[in-house]
Backbone:
């Protein structure tokens, strides 16, 4: 899914940035908190953030990773309510914070952008709902494959075929896919056996030996309904047979 920056012309993007001020946050800092009143939006200029959802017991679950060029906090303005999720810095980030009144003025002056943002917000919500609904026997591996592709798109500025370390734990990947850490661990084991994943440098982290094979596997399970046992990767062979 393309970022806000990629969806608008440079003049319109710079116009929005001119209405705010830059702020910096360190890894682990909260930029926004679930339940807060929505008084601003932010444009992510550097780094990555985690979108977190908190349940009634106070436990947070990772929903998604957002990257440079993303607009943060716009959901609450379209809903005219409190924030539905928290935003935490995954690494050191820089954002431009735009006050709510200035953001609304920007939308009023750019009705086409307002409609596009609304469509983008709906698409993000539908993607999350589809991921939550996709639960059942045999779905863990396909769900994890699609989450891994999302992670690649978030962390790789130029996701060409090659080895990539995903800076997320198996637990975090499982949260994004809507499964337990144990289910995520089992799905990772299957993908390693199929040479679609390798071992990462940290505890229960993963490496992707070939992005071409990973994308092919995710697409095959989504469109063609292939069983994970029918899909194998090259394990990082050069050149990749699928390249």
Residues:
């Amino acid at each position: 899914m393309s970022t806000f920056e990629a969806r608008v012309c440079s003049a319109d993007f710079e116009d929005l940035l001119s209405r705010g001020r830059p702020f910096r946050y360190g890894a682990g800092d909260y930029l926004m908190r679930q339940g807060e009143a929505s008084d601003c939006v932010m444009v992510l200029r550097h780094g990555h953030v985690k979108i977190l959802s908190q349940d009634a017991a106070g436990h947070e679950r990772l929903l998604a990773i957002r990257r440079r060029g993303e607009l943060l906090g716009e959901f609450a303005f379209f809903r005219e309510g409190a924030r539905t999720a928290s935003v935490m810095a995954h690494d050191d980030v820089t954002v431009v914070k735009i006050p709510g009144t200035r953001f609304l003025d920007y939308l009023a002056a750019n009705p086409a952008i307002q409609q596009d943002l609304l469509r983008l917000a709906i698409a993000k919500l539908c993607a999350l709902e589809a991921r939550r609904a996709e639960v059942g026997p045999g779905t863990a591996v396909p769900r994890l494959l699609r989450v891994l592709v999302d992670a690649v798109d978030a962390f790789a500025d130029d996701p060409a075929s090659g080895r990539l370390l995903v800076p997320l734990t198996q637990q975090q990947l499982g949260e994004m896919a809507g499964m337990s850490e144990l289910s995520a661990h089992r799905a990772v084991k299957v993908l390693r056996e199929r040479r679609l994943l390798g071992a990462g440098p940290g505890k229960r982290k993963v490496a992707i030996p070939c992005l071409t094979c990973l994308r092919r596997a995710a697409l095959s399970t989504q469109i063609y309904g292939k069983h994970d046992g029918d899909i194998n990767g090259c394990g990082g062979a050069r050149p990749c047979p699928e390249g």
Summary: The chain has two domains: 4-129, 135-220. The chain is about 40% helix and 20% strand. The longest strand covers residues 40-46.
